[in-house]
Amino acid sequence: MTLILKDPRNEDLKGVAKKIREGESCIYPTETCYGLGTNALDEEAVKKIYSIKERDMGKKLSCIVSSVEQAEKYCELNTVERDVCNEFMPGPLTLVAKKKNTVPDILNKDFVFRVSSNPIAQKLAQESGVPIVATSANFSGTGGRYSLDDISRVIRDRVDIILDYGELEKQEPSTIAKIDKRNVEIYRKGPVSRKQIERFLNI
Which of 17, 100, 178, 181 has the most CB atoms less than 10 A away? Predict the structure, then answer.
């Protein structure tokens, strides 16, 4: 049976974070839309996310972490990548970085992450101590969801926990970027533009 928490408080989030760490699935708010997540280091839990949203396992997943420092436990960042993270995170920038062996291949060939500016998402990542899968709470190939009423009943019934944060302000999905030798490659356009990143890097 799905546990639904309305306007979750810090004590609620500690308990939810523990369940996420143990591999349970959760619908939670982010700075862009409602996300569907679990412990990104737990291969079986990640498989469940693919199943819940009927996503092709060839379409890989990104994560939310609590900080750049936490991200560096799971990926290798050079000075330029770290500077970009510190400038644009927390916020709607997702960075593609070289992952460490502690991250399962089922998640992605790289470590693709962002630090969310949403306090709920950030607290979950902090309290769980693990990166949390960050994929939209929808069926694969459909648009973002900004309230629980927008989310399919089928998906809601398939997850273990739902955090109801009310209706979210509609935002674009995060920018997905890779920085390679000061070359900026955009995999998905979003709120942070290539020009903003290049301007910051003076290139």
Answer: 17
**Tally of domains within the chain:** 1
In which domain, by residue range, is 7 found? 3-201
Token digits for 52? 């819940």
Q: Do the Cβ atoms of 35 and 137 come closer than 8 Å?
A: yes
Residue 8: give its domain's CATH number: 3.90.870.10
Helical H runs in 26-115? 43-52, 68-71, 79-88
Alpha helices (H) in the chain, listed in sequence order = 10-21, 43-52, 68-71, 79-88, 119-128, 153-158, 194-201
- Surface-to-core class of residue 183, CB atoms within 10 Å of its CB (0-12 exposed, 13-18 middle, 19+ buried): exposed
Residue 11: the pLDDT is 80
Q: What was the pLDDT predicted at 95? A: 98
CA distance 124 to 10: 9
- Note whether 159 and 2 are within 8 A (CB): yes
**pTM confidence score:** 0.93
Mean pLDDT (10-residue bins), the chain, 203 residues: 83 94 97 95 97 93 96 96 96 96 93 96 96 95 90 96 93 93 92 95 88
